[in-house]
Amino acid sequence: MLTANVFVNIPVKSIARAYTYSVPAELSYLEAGWRVFVPFGGRKVEGFIVSVAEKTAEELGDMAGKLKPIEAAVDEEPWFSDKMLQAAQWLADFYLCSLAEMMRLFMPGKSGIKITVIYQSVPEQANHLLLAMPAYRAVYDCLSAGEGLSRGEIGKALPDYKTDLPQILDKLCQYGILSKEYQAGKREKARYEKFAQLLAEVTPELLAEFKRKKAQQHLLEVLSAAEQGQMAFAALKAQKITTATIHNLAEAGLIQIRQRRVLRDSYKDTELTCQPQINLTLDQNKAIEAMTPFLSEGKHHGFLLKGVTGSGKTQVYIEMAKKARAKGRQVVVLVPEIALTGQVVLAFKAYFPDDIVVMHSRLSLSERNDAVVRVRRGGAGIVIGARSALFTPLDNIGLIIMDEEQDMSYKQDESPRYHAKVVAEELAKIHQAVLLLGSATPSLESYYRTQQGELTLLTMPKRIGDMPLPVVQCVDMRQELRMGNRHILSRPLQLLIEQTMAKGQQIIIMLNRRGFSTFVMCRSCGEVIKCKLCALPLVYHKNGKLSCHHCDVTEPVPDVCPKCSSRYIKYFGSGTEKLEQELHQIVPSARVIRMDRDTTNTKFAHQEILQKFREKQYDILLGTQMVAKGHDIPNVTAVGIISADSSLNLPDFRAAERCFMLITQTAGRAGRHGTQGKVIIQTYNPEHYAVTCGIAQDYEGFYEQEMVLRQGLFYPPFSRIVKLLFQHEEENNAKGNAQKLVIAFNEHFAGAKGQQIIGPSPAVIARFRGIYRFVVLIKTTDLPAVQEFLREQQLHLRADVAIDIDPIAML
DNA sequence: ACTAAAGAACTC
DNA sequence: AGTTCTTTAGTG
């Protein structure tokens, strides 16, 4: 019998294994990689075939009689290639998650199908006692009238019973009065456009026949000029040609109205404003020469391109992409945030106008699907986007570029908690592709790996045209306070703003906190108002609401303190909203635009804000760290960083690294075109090496000092970290389970070097929705051994434990 | 995640 | 006893 091993697309750890199905004769063409529709339990779900095998009854053993047949195929071709399956399997093993959970990342949307339940009446039960009730009778009669309807359709037909329809339907199914059927439909919608196709040759004689039908004559002329005599209705409409005219001409048999699929692409009309750089610098050439042999021979290798801001890393990316495309291989270009795709698309479009698709999670499902279709048809070979672009179905990747490789947003912070760098590296290995990590300030991990010889370091230390780096000035905020300035804005920064505006130039100001006030406290009893779900302080926003930046929950500001009923409630700390207000007061003539998560909810909000700023409609761009990333605005000559060190006091071993990178990156935004920029950094820790090295743009200096600390504390890159989060309603159970694991770990690794386990300790959000959370941290030099140990302990199958490999937040 | 079956609580 | 709500096991 022909059988298939199938992983069902259900994200539950306890069923993270293959189930065997029989393959009916009419589906005998199915192979590994196909998405299918299968019966599972009492319902039908999507599944992924991972292998197909001919099996005898003996081989099947006692399962022989229990096999259910695969119902249908979801697509017309296999969705997962062998390489994709291989990558998904490796990643599932590495991150200790289920294969299905990993595989569903390789599709746009979590599932390829939408399953609807269709209810049908059972005729034999027409006189069931339960149907004496009017509501039940109405539903039954409604279904008896026609074919069978979904819940939504019944609700539409019987609006009176809509509210308790679910209960009615459940009940009727329970008694067998109604039957259920599961129907799978495509989730995404293909879009079509109508177009006119010219059938005849347009000769002067033919046009003469339409002397008295001017509109149709015009249409003929337009179509004869068009490519292949085809033109979309939308384009014709733009030329004031009505559908009536088109239909008339179709009646006459001279044209044909047809339909074709259009692939949506909201980046299609990106204007080509980028000037191609013609002469490469010496450094650029060196970098390209180092990588080219590997690309030409189709050999995997990893490179770290360390180039200061303005050294022309993008041009290196483009040159390498050209070479990969010339060999017929595909290219993936990753950026840390969706907002930065526009920038890269712009640069690449100048060289590859039609060879690009954009892929990220803010696109609609259909749009992502259209992008996949374009890639599959060979309509584009360069995928640009955020993390999720890595999972585009590509069969021949030659080059993976990861810009700003140090950026923490490359780590997915929900399950499966993968790091794009790990995925990129594994894909590069499987495809024998070149991996190119780019950064001005590489992560300590990557830089360390170049010293270990695992990656090849390429450097570009000079800015193009040898432009000077900006002048950086540090302002000690303690000093400011002593001088009597209690504003967020120091006087030197205020002065810089005024001077810059006087010259007609622009300023970027970065404050790493959104909202108005960072916490709200009662002055009588000291109670800080906290989120009901996670107990973290709520942030006050100017719209009068308190919001939790962790759970995205908002609530109104209470009139009196919830603890002591005092009316003395005050706002402390400052965010971007408050700074915006203060700027208006201190520099009334300044036109300020704010960019943070609150003002960038829509797909193109980032681009719109930056565009307005670029067009000089505003003087000051004020925002959170997103203003520090990758934008190049010529007229910006000054940058202010409000509290560069706010992260230094966090309980995170990467605090110093974060602070250093924030300063270097933000400072890099100033003065990229001719004029030397000026940067002011406000800090309470002017002596800290992260601040001093940041100001001096001294990566090596920072690296050396930080590495000493990391080694002393056995932190990455000298170890790798695995975070385990234990959750339980009972505090003691959560803690006890964690404790048990710690004991088992110590037993297992007794005497082994390079293994350390810490905890359990309460998580930052110690209690979430009534569930207690404890954290255990493992530091190891032998990650595979730890992964193996966790698998032995069956930890990856437990619903109450979340495993995070290479976590970003420790607690 | 969802279903179906088994068990516990509740109504009459 | 009959019904309804809750818990639990199992999905090929």
From TrEMBL:
Zn(2+) 1 binds at C522, C525, C561, C564. Zn(2+) 2 binds at C531, C534, C548, C551. Signal peptide: none annotated. Binds 2 zinc ions per subunit. This is Replication restart protein PriA. One of its GO terms (molecular function) is ATP binding. It comes from Selenomonas ruminantium. Keywords: ATP-binding, DNA replication, DNA-binding, Helicase, Hydrolase, Isomerase, Metal-binding, Nucleotide-binding, Primosome, Zinc. Belongs to the helicase family. PriA subfamily. Residues 556-710 form the Helicase C-terminal domain. It catalyses: Couples ATP hydrolysis with the unwinding of duplex DNA by translocating in the 3'-5' direction; ATP + H2O = ADP + phosphate + H(+). Component of the replication restart primosome. GO terms for biological process: DNA recombination; DNA replication initiation; DNA replication, synthesis of primer; double-strand break repair. One of its GO terms (cellular component) is primosome complex. Its EC number is 5.6.2.4. Initiates the restart of stalled replication forks, which reloads the replicative helicase on sites other than the origin of replication. Recognizes and binds to abandoned replication forks and remodels them to uncover a helicase loading site. Promotes assembly of the primosome at these replication forks. It is an enzyme of class 5 (isomerase). The gene is priA. Its cofactor is Zn(2+). InterPro entries: DEAD/DEAH_box_helicase_dom, Helicase_ATP-bd, Helicase_C-like, P-loop_NTPase, PriA, PriA_3primeBD, PriA_3primeBD_sf, PriA_C. NCBIfam families: priA, PRK05580.1-3.
